[in-house]
Amino acid sequence: MRGSTLAGLSERTSMILDLFKLDDRVAIVTGASRGIGQALALGLAQAGADVACITRSGNAEETRALVERSGRRFLDLKADLGKDDERAGLAQKVVDEFGRLDILVNNAGVTHRYLPEEYPLEEWRYLLDVHLHAAFELAVQSAEFMAERGRGRIINIGSLMCYEAGLNVSAYAAAKHALAGLTKSLAVSWAPRGINVNCIAPGYIETELSGVLQDDPVRGPQILERIPLGRWAQPDELAGLCVYLASDACSYMHGSVIPIDGGWLSR
Fold this sequence. Notes:
The chain is of the alpha/beta class. The chain is built from ten helices and seven strands. It has helices at 2-13, 35-46, 61-69, 84-87, 90-98, 121-149, 170-190, 211-214, 219-226, 239-246; strands spanning 26-30, 50-55, 74-78, 103-106, 152-157, 195-202, 257-260.
């Protein structure tokens, strides 16, 4: 019995790199026109997946060029994920175009910074719609098609705010804490149907949107000093983990929230 188990393990590990291949699978990545989303879309394409990008502007031509240069197909969909009517039927559009749906990456987000007592409720609600309600709705839409095939991968992009409070980002922290809880809840519900739901919790990443914080003369040095690695991350440093979570290699991972933060949370 033990010998047969070891033989099976040997066969599986001898093909380990094949487990990471995403050949001919189809992924949705929200907010993939730039920054983290673009890096994740490119990583998935390089691993073999076709990519559908959902953005508010409907303009992801740079991402399209990167994906198509990798030899994969690309679909650009325009939708404001903060609006109920524009979220409707997005997964169906991807299936209509590509014939299947295997991977969903909920990456789109916005950030507002206010003192809690000054936070405009309209902006609070919009942020939660984009970060939380859209992630839930797209997950439900996608799970319908994934369950038909008996497999699927849903990857939510959280943040250090899955664990911490941040400063004057009450809506963002609330949304990311909730996204971590949603990840675990959906994993419990859908693991028996072959759908893995996990969450990446990035630390501080160099993007256009983070430039204001990085360049702040007070907060910038404070943040950098606390990161044990001594630098902010580049967006493509998240791509490897995303490919893993999208692949067959993560078959036993369900409901995990995984920091990738240069050691921030360990300090």
